[in-house]
Amino acid sequence: MFSRLSLAAIGISTLVAAAPNFGSSQQRCSSVSFKLSATAENAVFASPPNPENETAIEAFVKSAFSANPPATDGTVPASGTFTINGIYCKPTVPMPHRGAAIQILVHGITYNKTMWSGLGFGDQYDWHKFANAQGYHTLAIDRLGHGLDQGGQPWQRQQYPDPLNVVQGAMHVELAHQLITALRTNNTGHALDRGFDKIAYVGHSYGSFIGEALARVYPEDADALVLTGYSTSLNLGAGSALQVASAANLFPARYGRLPLGYVTIAEETQREAVFYAGAYDKRIPQVDYLFEDTVTDGEIGALAFTLQPATTYKNPVMVVTGALDAFFCGGPGSCESALNATGQFFPATSNFEYYAPADTGHDLTLHYSAPVTLQKVHDFLNKFF
Ligand SMILES: *[C@@H]1O[C@H](CO)[C@@H](O)[C@H](O)[C@H]1NC(C)=O
Ligand SMILES: *[C@@H]1O[C@H](CO)[C@@H](O)[C@H](O)[C@H]1NC(C)=O
Ligand SMILES: *[C@@H]1O[C@H](CO)[C@@H](O)[C@H](O)[C@H]1NC(C)=O
Ligand SMILES: *[C@@H]1O[C@H](CO)[C@@H](O)[C@H](O)[C@H]1NC(C)=O
Asked: Which ligand 1 atom sits closest to the C-alpha of 49?
């Protein structure tokens, strides 16, 4: 059912071309693919956009960031067997008590698994490298519908299912649950060839929404949650101001075959303005825009699924969000209170903490404060792992 895609199998040069951000990590990191089956109760939209009409899709996405988000009309089961690709990295400094501990890293919208490696800008932005040096295994995944083909067997090709009806938060949660179930089983059949008994779910932005919803639906799955670029105070205005366009039209060479419901941010300056703030290397947003990934109309339209408290989740939670985050912090004065208030979504947690790196925007691991953020997160995780 599962199989391994090793560096040797596809050749390092192919891999570097497909994912230039592996940096110096070839020794300990490899591409892996999981084949997971899931069924989710996805939202049914009362007035779905015509999937062939980009104007209607853009209007639908914009409306999701308004006071009147798209109306839904119940749910319907969506199912499938999907490939989830990842970058898996092993500890560089083995710690016996963390020998079976793994962090699952889940990216936000218009990103993919490579964001956790720093987009090629060096070790200071590399989450894997930092975690691996503290004894953790790390697995950064491409959420369903994200990332590009990285070669391998036909079943390992990236899939782009129906963006509106299949690629939604409820499906991401079911797939995360299937992935964690596989990793907790000491079954040498799956891509990592071993089991894990401690699992930290680490999200960024929409990946944090999924983590929060996972904790609500499957409260036993994560032994700890680290929710970055996140709070329960979502500034809708930052999203509604964004111009989006179908990725197939904006970047035809890369995304030409994607359905129009896979959209992305149309303007480089807008992308920088919402994802970056304060102190950062000004070259990063340029590369970030050129290689940006997508978000689906279904993910944005069904956001409400991820905005409900995880009332029975008992394990520790840390929220880490840049003090200048345009989406989730109201600025230096009000950021910490927004993060503190986010604790209300986790009333049963054994431990709630938050941290707001100064001079830092939404993409916190791509700012100069990244090493401090990484240290703070690991100070938290190391208490429980
Ligand atoms: C596409 O959608 C827009 C906005 O809903 C609408 O005004 C336009 O007529 C549609 N175009 C076609 C060809 O259906
Ligand atoms: C992911 O995004 C990066 C840039 O953020 C890009 O270079 C890469 O081609 C994308 N695809 C995959 C499979 O990671
Ligand atoms: C799985 O194997 C690891 C060592 O590789 C061990 O620490 C852990 O307890 C095992 N878990 C289960 C559920 O058997
Ligand atoms: C943080 O939130 C808790 C309740 O969740 C509240 O009791 C406390 O007063 C808040 N602290 C600050 C500084 O806002």
From this structure: 5
Sequence-distant (6+) residues with CB within 8 A of 220 are: none
State how far Cα 126 lies from the chain centre: 15
Ramachandran assignment for 280, one of left (phi > 0), alpha (psi -120 to 50 degrees), beta (any other): beta
260-281 pLDDT tens trace: 999 999 999 999 999 999 999 9
Please check whether residue 284 is in contact with residue 119, taking contact to mean a CB–CB distance below 8 angstroms.
yes
pTM for the structure as a whole: 0.91
Ligand nearest to the CA of 183: 3
Cα separation, 368 vs 166, in Å, equals 37
57-112 pLDDT, tens per residue? 999 999 998 888 999 999 999 999 999 999 999 999 989 999 999 999 999 999 99
Radius of gyration of the chain (CA): 19
Residue of 21, 32, 111, 114 to test ligand 2 pocket, by largest number of atoms within 8 Å of CB: 114
- Residue the block writes with tokens 């560096």: 7
Reported as type and span, the H/E element at residue 129 is helix 127-132
Q: Which amino acid is at 205?
A: S
